[in-house]
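sry for the spam today, last one i promise. C-alpha cells for design, 266 residues
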C-alpha cells in the first residue's frame, strides 16, 4: 500500500497517501507537513518560480525552468523535492518509532456483523449522480479507496448524508470524512484536484469530532469560482471501509436532492 501511494504521489495524486496512510496515523502526517514546509523554505530561498501552467507532481518540474535558461531556482526545486522525500521518511521513523518496535499481533477473524450494520446513505448534495468508474481521477474511479458514487453538484452546499461523527475535516475544506452511527466510514471529496486551491472558495462549518445528524450543513463552496479556476466539480462519495461489507452499491442515478438514498451498504 505504501509503495503504490508513493508512486501515485510523485505523479501528483496524493489522496491515497494522505487519506490511506499518513492522516489516519497522525504522526506521519505531521512529519510530512514539517518536511514540506522546510522544502518550501528552500525553494523560497533559492528563488524558485513557476513560469507556466503545467502538470502536477514530477510533471511540474519543467515549469520551473526560466525562459532565460536553467538557473538556481530550478536547482532549488530539485533539492527541495529530494529534501521533502528524505526528511519526511527520517522524521516519520523518528516520530513514529514506537510503532516500528512493536511486535505484530496476528489478526483475529472478525465477523462483518460484529463491526458494521447495514444502512442506506443519503445524498450530501443537490446534483446529478454519476458512476464512480466514469470520473477522471483514476484512484477514485478504480475503487482503490472504496466503492460509492460521484455527484456533479448544482448547489454549493455539502450536508451530512446520515447521522454520525466527523472523523476528518481537511484544512483546505475540500474534503470531509465521517463515521456513521452504524459504522460506515464515508469520504466526501468536493471536486477533482481541488486541494490545489488551498482553501479558496471553500468554507467549513464543522470540526473534527463533531456529532452531526442527517442534513447538517458541513461545507459551502463557490461553484462558479471553482469552475472558473479550471477545476472539475464532480464529487466522489465513497465508503472507505468497503472491505468490511458484503456489498456497497449505488441506489440512484440522474438528479438527486439532499437526503435521497444513493448508496446501500450491507
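last one done:
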Amino acid at each position: 500500500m505504501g509503495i503504490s501511494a508513493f508512486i501515485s504521489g510523485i505523479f501528483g495524486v496524493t489522496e491515497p497517501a494522505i487519506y490511506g496512510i499518513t492522516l489516519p496515523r497522525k504522526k506521519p502526517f505531521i512529519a510530512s507537513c514539517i518536511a514540506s514546509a522546510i522544502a518550501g523554505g528552500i525553494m523560497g530561498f533559492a528563488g524558485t518560480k513557476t513560469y507556466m501552467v503545467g502538470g502536477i507532481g514530477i510533471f511540474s518540474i519543467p515549469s520551473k525552468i526560466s525562459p532565460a535558461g536553467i538557473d538556481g531556482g530550478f536547482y532549488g526545486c530539485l533539492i527541495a523535492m529530494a529534501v521533502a522525500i528524505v526528511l519526511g521518511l527520517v522524521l516519520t521513523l523518528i516520530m513514529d518509532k514506537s510503532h516500528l518496535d512493536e511486535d505484530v499481533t496476528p489478526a483475529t477473524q472478525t465477523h462483518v456483523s460484529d463491526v458494521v450494520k447495514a444502512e442506506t446513505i443519503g445524498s450530501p448534495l443537490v446534483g446529478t449522480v454519476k458512476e464512480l468508474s466514469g470520473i477522471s481521477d483514476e484512484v477514485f474511479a478504480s475503487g482503490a479507496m472504496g466503492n460509492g458514487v460521484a455527484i456533479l453538484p448544482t448547489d454549493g452546499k455539502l450536508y451530512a448524508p446520515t447521522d454520525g461523527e466527523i472523523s476528518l475535516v481537511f484544512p483546505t475544506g475540500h474534503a470531509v470524512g465521517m463515521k456513521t452511527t452504524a459504522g460506515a466510514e464515508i469520504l466526501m471529496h468536493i471536486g477533482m484536484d481541488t486541494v490545489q486551491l488551498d482553501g479558496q472558495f471553500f468554507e467549513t462549518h464543522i470540526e473534527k469530532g463533531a456529532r452531526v445528524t442527517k442534513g447538517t450543513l458541513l461545507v459551502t463552496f463557490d461553484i462558479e469560482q471553482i469552475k472558473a479556476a479550471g477545476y472539475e466539480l464532480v464529487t466522489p462519495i465513497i465508503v472507505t471501509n468497503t472491505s468490511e461489507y458484503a456489498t456497497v452499491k449505488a441506489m440512484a442515478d440522474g438528479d438527486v436532492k439532499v437526503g435521497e438514498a444513493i448508496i446501500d451498504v450491507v
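The chain has two domains: 2-99, 117-265. ok im logging off now
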